[in-house]
Specification:
heterodimer, A: 433 residues, alpha/beta, Rossmann fold, Ubiquitin-like (UB roll), de novo design (two linked rop proteins), five-stranded mixed β-sheet, 17 helices, 13% strand, globular, B: 214 residues, alpha+beta, Arc Repressor Mutant, subunit A, Glutaredoxin, 5 strands, 43% helix
């Protein structure tokens, strides 16, 4: 039985965990001091050796990303933290930043020093004002304490940190769209290559990392490689935040070594809501193909989830029980992708609208069996045909739900409408609200 | 157009805009915080705001409008003092978000992107707001209201219209207006960061279990 391993979340239950005093009480900013005493390349090597992989969805090795930045090129370098957390089901970075914004600031100092960046940015989604307040205060307090600004810690390293609010566009979580947005344009993805490491923000070498990836760095510097590598699996090292939501007794954040299973998390947390059974779930947000009860024992690491036909993604475990209509779920996710498609690439811009139209008809019982083939054909013409992965994400819930629940789509046709009672799946179904 | 469109920004407001621009290596990057700032002054992205941003950043007004209209948080007409967003993405919708939206929309007599006649409350169907472990979630002026029901949201909007909204679940002690919160998103510190809890119950779930097992 895998045990939980709170590292990032270890002090969230303290009243002042988000203040600089609360952070320093637990050794805050010691890792930055240690790192600034090392050669920048040694810091990069340490993160490479740790095996830390990106926690924002793609799982790319963090240290390697840092290593791609050309050195000695006489160009400005930038670090940009992706705090645009918007993937449906994903809810780990926002509580992390509410409860401990300083761990991100400290990670930014270390990462910027390693890649020789003197200006870093946090791109925070705009729809979370209190998270913005906490981060802004943390940055101001870090400046006042000499952790940011000129000649940090007397080591001759300068770093400016700018907090930037987005304004409600999911696509800006895609790293190149984020960069366009940060430059003051519409947030539309760029064609890669060139990758951000060569031509990122203002066409300068840039690292874009997820909040959790950067926030994991101070603990690695403080506790060492052996400590970090003792957690997780062969190719997925360390601890991470799993976010459990939906039809469970106790939703929430569960920090555990990579490779824990959903069965274990459910056993620890109290299981599916009483009197109900697991029907389907996402391992890493709505863009990762859905799983069913047969996947309860899949190790939730990068390789395990991939081998079972989905993706670890953001480790957003959205749980749905037998009261939930899978066609309705697929339709709502499709409406989301349609709304969030930036419009740059035709297959995505047009295709997501067609997906919604077809799913509307299918949910209303107006489709035919031939429509299911047409739907799959449409998916085939959308996935992999656009600049970014939004289009791939849009078809994931449809293809996977058809794979496991094809008959439920047909049942809508036989029934002349949705056979489910939406009230039964609400969390106030049993209460008179 | 409102009367505002014929009044110029004050010297103090222009100085604030200059400070926002100074945060960035290139001025154009300031377009988003400047749009948030205009919303904090005017309640939405006004023509005078577009013109001033264009002038400050040496852009055409069409370039500023092109950016403004891409992002859903920038409004083309005034929001209410209390802008209520009901999450209707799959998980929240299934858990009760659909029922909440239907109920509050009927209760207020307004639909998506509409404002009550008294200008107090506006309504929006929103997508995932990164609080799924507190579903169904409602955001008011982009502050978290966790674990809502149709009744709790109807009560919330009634109290807001009476000028006495409940405090956010994870936020400051008192709910600020939509304009006041727009100023925060422009990077203006309102000094409220230390108010409110560190973490909600669901955020602490795993930590508590880990501690209990020790």
């Amino acid at each position: 039985m895998t045990k939980l391993s709170p590292v990032l979340s270890a002090n969230w239950d303290e009243k002042d965990s988000f203040t600089i005093e609360g952070y320093k009480r637990h050794g805050g900013y010691k890792a930055a001091a240690t790192a600034l005493g090392m050669e920048p390349d040694a810091v990069i090597q340490m993160i490479k050796d740790s095996g830390l992989r990106g926690r924002g969805g793609a799982g790319f090795p963090t240290g390697s990303k840092w290593g791609f930045i050309p050195q000695g090129d006489n160009k400005d370098h930038y670090l940009v933290v992706n705090a645009d957390e918007s993937e449906p089901g994903t809810c780990k970075d926002m509580p992390l930043l509410l409860a401990n914004p300083h761990v991100l600031v400290e990670g930014i100092i270390i990462a910027s020093y390693a890649i020789r960046a003197n200006h870093a940015f946090i791109y925070l989604r705009g729809e979370v004002v209190h998270v913005y307040r906490r981060l802004l205060q943390a940055i101001e307090d870090a400046y006042a304490a000499g952790h940011l600004g000129k000649n940090i810690g007397g080591k001759g390293f300068d770093l400016e940190l700018t907090l930037h609010a987005g304004a409600g566009a999911y696509i800006c979580g895609e790293e190149t769209a984020l960069l366009d947005s940060l430059e003051g344009f519409r947030g539309q993805p760029r064609l890669r290559p060139p990758f951000p490491a060569i031509a990122g923000l203002y066409a300068k070498p840039t690292v874009v990392n997820n909040v959790e990836s950067i926030a994991s760095v101070p603990a690695i510097i403080n506790n060492g490689l052996e400590w970090f590598q003792a957690m997780g699996t062969e190719k997925s090292k360390g601890f991470t935040l799993y976010s459990l939501s939906g039809h469970v007794e106790n939703p929430g954040q569960f920090e555990a070594p990579l490779g824990i299973t959903l069965r274990e998390i459910l056993e620890l947390s109290g299981g599916i809501r009483k009197g109900h059974q697991l029907k389907f779930w996402t391992p890493g947000g709505s863009s990762t193909p859905i799983f069913t009860a047969e996947h309860l024992d899949v190790p939730l690491d990068y390789e395990g989830v991939s081998a079972a036909g989905s993706m670890l993604g953001t480790k957003a475990l959205q749980i749905f029980d037998e009261t939930t209509c899978v066609v309705r779920a697929a339709l709502r996710w499709s409406e989301f992708y349609k709304h969030e498609s930036c419009g740059k690439c035709t297959p995505c811009r047009e295709g997501t609208w067609w997906l919604v139209q077809m799913l509307h008809d299918l949910e209303a019982g107006k489709g035919t069996e031939a429509d299911l083939e047409k739907l799959l054909d449409l998916c085939d013409n959308i996935a992999g045909r656009s600049f970014c992965a939004l289009a791939d994400g849009a078809v994931a819930p449809i293809i996977s739900s058809l794979k496991y629940f094809r008959d439920e789509y047909l049942e809508h046709q036989r029934n002349g409408g949705c056979p489910f009672d939406p009230v039964a799946s609400t969390n106030f179904a049993a209460v008179n609200s | 157009m409102s009367d505002k469109d014929f009044i110029s920004f004050s010297q103090e407001q222009i100085a604030t805009m200059d400070k926002i621009i100074a945060r960035y290596p290139r001025s154009r990057s300031a377009i988003m915080p400047l749009l948030h700032y205009v919303q904090s002054l005017d309640g939405y992205v006004t023509p005078r705001g577009i013109e001033k941003i264009a002038e400050k950043l040496e852009l055409a007004t069409a370039e500023v409008t092109a950016v403004s209209t891409f992002y859903t948080q920038y409004l083309t007409k005034p929001a209410g003092d209390y802008h209520v967003g009901v999450c209707v993405n799959t998980l929240c919708a299934v858990m009760g978000g659909d029922a909440i939206y239907e109920s509050v929309s009927e209760h207020l007599g307004i639909g998506n992107h509409e404002v009550t006649k008294d200008g107090k409350v506006s309504l929006e169907r929103i997508e995932c707001n990164a609080a799924c472990d507190y579903a169904p979630v409602v955001m008011v002026n982009w502050e978290f209201y966790d674990n809502q029901t149709p009744r709790s949201v109807n009560d919330l909007v009634d109290a807001a219209r009476a000028g006495n909204p409940p405090a956010p679940t994870r936020g400051p002690n008192k709910l600020r207006t939509w304009r006041e919160n727009s100023a925060v998103l422009a990077g203006l510190n309102d000094g409220l960061a230390n108010e409110g809890i560190s973490a909600g119950e669901a955020s602490l779930r795993g930590l508590k279990i880990a501690k209990d097992k020790k």
